[in-house]
TrEMBL record:
Residues 2-84 form the DUF2399 domain. Pfam families: DUF2399 (PF09664). It comes from the Bacteria. This is DUF2399 domain-containing protein. InterPro entries: DUF2399.
């Protein structure tokens, strides 16, 4: 199963809970994907809240903290649809 979620602390928490019950692999949900999406989405909102870990990609949480912005899943929609095409 593939999974993609929001690039914010809440998104990482949701993905972590899901990962403990359903085995999945990240679908454009890694640190490099986050960096690329934020670079392509200049109107990203500030990252707020309590930091969370991303056990599927140990570089993701530090990348989010460094970037300081969040990217909702919807901003990746065109990429995800292109993968399915």
């Amino acid at each position: 199963m593939l999974y993609h979620g929001d690039f914010d602390w809440g998104g990482l928490r949701i993905a972590g809970v899901l990962l403990r019950t359903v085995p999945w692999h990240p679908w454009r949900y890694t640190a490099s994907d986050c960096r690329a999406l934020v670079a392509a989405t200049p109107s990203s909102r500030p990252l707020t809240g309590t930091p969370a870990e991303a056990p599927w990609d140990l570089a993701l949480a530090p990348a989010l903290a460094e970037l300081g912005v969040r990217a909702e899943e919807e901003t990746a929609l065109d990429l995800l649809l292109a993968d399915l095409a």
